[in-house]
Amino acid sequence: MKTRDRLRIAMQKSGRLTEPALDLLNRCGLSFRQSRDKLFCFGEGEPVDLLLVRDDDIPGLIAQGVCDLGIVGRNVLSEYQLTDGREAEPLAEWRPLGFGRCRLSIAVPQEMAYEEVGQLAGRRIATSYPGLLREWLRTNGVDAGVVTLAGSVEIAPRLGTADAICDLVQSGGTLVANHLREADVLLESEAVLAGPQTLPVDERGDMIELLLKRLDGVMQVRE
Ligand code: PRP
Ligand code: ZN
Ligand code: MG
Fold this sequence. Notes:
- This protein is of the alpha/beta class.
- It is 29% helix and 30% strand.
- It folds into two domains: 7-100 and 190-222, 3-Layer(aba) Sandwich (D-Maltodextrin-Binding Protein, domain 2), CATH 3.40.190.10; 102-189, Periplasmic binding protein-like II (D-Maltodextrin-Binding Protein, domain 2), CATH 3.40.190.
- It is built from seven helices and twelve strands.
- The strands form two sheets. Strands 2-3-4-1-5-12-6 form a seven-stranded mixed sheet. Strands 9-8-10-7-11 form a five-stranded mixed sheet.
- The N and C termini lie far apart (40 Å).
- The chain binds 1-O-pyrophosphono-5-O-phosphono-alpha-D-ribofuranose (PRP), zinc ion (ZN) and magnesium ion.
């Protein structure tokens, strides 16, 4: 791949992380000219550009070297490492960013008894996070079915295609609306700055170091 001299940061195109991520980058002294297709935003002051993509694609883009850094949920990063990125060099979580906090949890129908994980044995669990769910089940020695869905996981119990779900919970509103209750937590998540384990030894590496320094300053002020 042709080496770039400008740094490229991937972030979610539209979703819960978009506004706070942009706000954080602005506070770090970065500003962007919005391009017409809004997929690529050229950085105005510093040599740092933005790529606006689906959050699930961000770890892969970093692993391929298409982007140098990404702002993404720990849940997406961890799922990638357990599935598509299994064989690749693990990515690093450079900094936790303090926004987009949520939990990856098991939720069960209101009326279903749940005291401990063993009660999931032989049940079917719908999720968009098969890697994290399977690992958690394995760690707990529980044999359960994993039904992988790309979205709308919360309706699976009502449709009869699963007995429970494993999905992100933020306010809990989605669970209440679907007569589900949170039963167990697999992972505490928030937005993180992700990148390769080793920084490039060129201007981009220097820029990343500068950015990390500014980020630490911004985060300190926020505490
Ligand atoms: C997540 C998750 C739940 C919802 C939980 O979906 O899948 O549906 O948020 O949030 P709550 O507890 O505040 O209701 P999201 O809206 O991020 O998008 P997606 O399901 O399309 O990925
Ligand atoms: Zn997503
Ligand atoms: Mg959802």
